[in-house]
Amino acid sequence: MAASAGPEIERLISLLAKLPGLGPRSARRAALALLKRRDQLLAPLSEALADAAARVKTCSVCGSLDTRDPCAICADPGRDGSLICVVEEVGALWAMERAGAFRGRYHVLGGLLSALDGVGPDALRIGRLVGRVANEGVREVILALPATVDGQTTAHYLAERLAGTGVSVTMLARGVPVGGELDWLDDGTIAQALRARRPA
Fold it and tell me: Best label site of 9, 51, 77, 132, fewest CB within 10 Å?
């Protein structure tokens, strides 16, 4: 960064560069766009950030983010409380909600088990999940975790922890995406799709 930019601009760029998907170059472009359009972008963004910092909290039941506790999903009487969909982070919960196909409740783990990164069961919201299963009349836990080594390790661990509870533990199906062409898919996806095949 040029020294003539000033410490305020350098700080803005440095903070923007910490966001996922933004490196130093993208952060510079974003900062420049914000500064060029102060009234339309910078001022409203600043207000929205301050408002979010003051009002958004973590739901004490599921771990989602909302301006109230419990969150809107946990407080919705139209949701099926006997179904819990377990996700890694809030972003995955939002993706599930965008699909509009699930009307149960959620549980956000806050990460995945990872021996490499030193993340054990106590660092995640696993104990709370087991407590919810024991106390809330849950009949099925759906594991909507990534198809990665850490995701599968976490899913296996959760299935073992919930094995004695009598609850049904299922996983999202994996395989050929809607509109997917076989010649564009990787070998692992094709193999998983074959294993998860169903009657036509």
Answer: 77
